Amino acid sequence: MNMKRWLPLIVFALLAVLLAAGVWLSRNPNRDALPSPLIGKPAPAFDLPVLHDPGQRVSLKKLRGAPFVMNVWGSWCAECRVEHPVLTRFAESKRVRVIGYNWKDEREDALRWLEQFGNPFFVVVTDVEGKTAIDWGIYGAPETFLVDADGIIRWKHVGALTDTVVQQELLPALEKAEKKR
Q1: Which terminus of the chain is more exposed, N or C, with fewer CB under 10 A?
Q2: Rounded CA gap, 134 and 132, in Å?
């Protein structure tokens, strides 16, 4: 038996097993596997233009005094479309201000997307270049943050919000943040 002939097949099989093991190990449904280092720390300062009126700006300083949920989205994001009805129902409860953070999107595309699917946001800020997103540790959309009245990040969710996530994670985090005041 000529081993040189089988060597590429053996190497390929080992790489396939290694890849399969990596995929299997990464299936952890617990999104806390990648916790944000910002939880419990002051939210990074920002001063961004308003999507609907770029002449106006919103800053973290202007939002302090009451908690808010900040949802990172883009018209190009398929999962943002999936979570939008959930986010809309949550925003309609008026429990807390929901701030839209439109990330790396063209203004016209974002406005058209909101026109088509509805605008549940108290206000939408826009970060076309994505510079502020770096400070927040944003690496994809959708992502959702809960910031308390003092400007401290209390909760973060990576991926699309579901009714279960809202009920079992976001609302308890909001209640806990409100009790700290």
Answers
A1: N
A2: 5
Cα–Cα distance for residue pair 97/90, rounded to 1 Å: 10
Residue from 153, 72, 83, 160 nearest 118 by CA: 83
Contact indicator for 142, 83 with CB cutoff of 8 Å: yes
**Spatial separation of the C-alpha atoms in residues 80 and 76, rounded to whole Å:** 8
Q: For residue 44, what is the DSSP state?
A: P
Say which range, 17-31, 72-86, 93-107, has the weakest mean pLDDT: 17-31
Question: Of the candidates 156, 121, 161, which has an alpha carbon nearest to the alpha carbon of residue 137?
Answer: 156
> How far is it, in rounded angstroms, from Cα 60 to Cα 62?
5
Q: Rounded mean pLDDT of 133-149?
A: 94
User: What is the average per-residue pLDDT within 64-87?
Assistant: 96
On the question of pLDDT at 19 being above 80, the answer is: no
What pTM value is reported for the model? 0.79
CB 34 within 8 A of CB 62: no
Please give the CATH superfamily to which domain 39-179 belongs: Glutaredoxin (3.40.30.10)
* Separation CA 99–CA 46 (nearest Å): 13
d(CA 53, CA 67): 23
